[in-house]
Amino acid sequence: MSQIITYQRRLGVIAAVAAPLLIASALVARADAPPAPPRATAAVTTAATATTASWNSHVSCRATVTTLAKVLGTQRGSLGGATFAGGGFKPGVPDRRDITPPCSVNGVRTLVELHRVKMGSCHSINRDGDWTCTVTDPTATKRPADLNHIHIENDGNFRAAHWSQADPPGGTLLDVQGFVFWDPSHTTKGWHNHSGWELHSFTAWRHAK
Fold first, then answer.
1. What is the pLDDT of residues 41-69, one digit of tens each?
2. Is 183 helix (H, G, I), strand (E, B) or coil?
3. Hey, how many other C-beta atoms are within 10 angstroms of the C-beta on 19?
4. How many CB atoms lie within 10 A of CB 131?
């Protein structure tokens, strides 16, 4: 009987000594193991930014609050204007004449909101009913001129539907909303900043806060 007790005590001592060694060994093995692969997440093609409701009651999309620099990007074409490839919200809406364009294309939002930009004078162009203006960012003084201007148009179909505000006052600081659009037919035109990017339709404005 005494031999059995002695044997059991020895087993207890062995277990007491072995347990910490096994735990330490497991911890080392875990530390040496390669990290687990990250879990798959949904692709996000536009950097996470704040969005706001449209100021135009006829537009259901939410606007992405961004800057003119992010809309145009930094890539310059042969004439100095912003390229399609460098655009921050490409491809933009597929049809500038659509008064209810999609709120996103290929996962990229189409309606943007710019704060404290300077509005140039606006005037009617052609016979399609469009009114056009130019917007600049007065704080981006180090960017080339063609990368700090964007052509915006208050579309004739928008105006015909009576969905437009009054034309904005030129020479003032405004906050604006509009749909990003790429017009490949004007990339060689200086009045279009040697770039196809524009806001069309330009949907709303307010005096800068």
1. 333 344 447 899 999 999 999 999 999 99
2. coil
3. 10
4. 19
> What's the pLDDT tens digit per position in 185-202?
999 999 899 999 999 989
Q: What is the pTM of this model?
A: 0.75
Beta bridge partners, 207, equal: 174
Let me know: does 148 contact 26? Beta carbons within 8 Å. no
Domain coverage including residue 186: 51-207
Q: Look up residue 140 and give its DSSP letter.
A: -
Inter-CA distances, 151 with 51, 73, 134, 156, 194, Å? 22, 15, 5, 15, 10
Q: Is residue 18 part of a domain?
A: no
Total structural domains within the chain = 1
- What's the pLDDT tens digit per position in 82-103? 999 999 999 999 999 899 999 9
